[in-house]
Amino acid sequence: MSQRYSRLESVEEKNNFRSAIILIILTIAVVVILIVVGIPTVGKVATFVSGLRGGGTPITLNDKTPPAPPTFKTFPDFTNQATTGISGTAEPGATLKLTFNGTERDTLVDKDGNFSFQNLALQSGDNIFFAFAVDSAGNISQKSGDKKIVYDNKPPALSVDSPADGSKFFGSGQRQITIQGTTDSGSSVTINDRIVSVDDSGKFQYTLTLSGGDNRFVIKSVDQAGNSTEKDITLNFSE
Length: 239
Prior knowledge:
By secondary structure, the chain is of the alpha+beta class. 21% of the residues lie in helices and 41% in strands.
C-alpha cells in the first residue's frame, strides 16, 4: 500500500515540475513579446494621447486665428549699395512671404520670431516691398504696410555760383564774402567741414571773413544715399 502512494507522489511531483517549467517558459515568452512589441506600441499610443491632450506638437487643425502682420526692423530709406538685407519679426514657426519689387520669396520664422532676407538686388530708384505670414494651420495674416528703399549711386550735382575760383579781394570792405551755390534737393553741404544750410530747392550760402593771402575752401555735398561731390576754390585777399 505504501509503495502505491509513493508511486503516486512521484508522478504528482513530475507533473508539478513539468507545469512549473511550462509556466517559466510562458512567462519568459510574454516578457520578450512585451519588450519587442508591446513597449513601442504603448509608446506610440501614449504619444498620440499626449498630442490629443496638448502635449508634444500642437494640433492646429481647429486654429482659425490669423497671425499678426509682420513687422520690419530698421532699414535704410536711401542707399548707394546695389544689394540690401531686410529683417523683422513675425509669429514663430510661421512662413514669412515677402514681395520685393513684385517678386515673391519666402522663409521660415525662427523660434524667437525673427526672419531675414539677405542680398536683395536693388533697382535704380524706388524699391517697394511688403510681407505677410502664414501659420502652420494655413491662416494668413494681414500684409504689412508697403515699405520703400531708394537706390541711388550717382553723386549729387554741385555748383559754386559765386565767387569764382581764383577771385581776388582787396581792402577791409571786401574782407567779408559770401559763398553761394546749388546742389541736389535733400543733400547736405559743408564748407571746410562746417555745416551749411540748404533750402528746399538745393540753394546754399555761407558768409565768412577772409584771411590775408590765399584762402582755400572745400565745398562738399552729400546726398541722402551717401554719394558725395566736392569742389575746391581758392580766394585771395590783400589789405
